[in-house]
Please model this.
Amino acid sequence: MTMEFIVGAVIAGLVVMFFVGKYFSKKLPKETHFECARCGTVARHTDRTIDAWRNNKTTFFCQSCHIKWVRARAPRERARSASPAGSRSGCLGVVVLFAVVPLAGFLLMHAYA
Ligand SMILES: [Zn+2]
Model:
């Protein structure tokens, strides 16, 4: 057995354990379906509702009610994310990045020249 093979086997084992753990260690609701708390439709659990279930939520909403809720909530969220402060800090971050990267390169070149 070569060293590369052992390392490869260990990495493969870790990857498999990661995926197995990811899929089997998480609890799942006993029921595969739930009744929408808003419209009463029986809907299948999705990743979103399973996450809610894991967070001890007892009421779930079907996909269409969830989309309606997201849309109803969206204008406020949009207003908040589009606030001048948010966009300014975003632009500032980019400006800083563009200023720092050439400066760092310049300093490194001088340090090693
Ligand atoms: Zn619904």
Remarks:
- The chain has a mean pLDDT of 82.
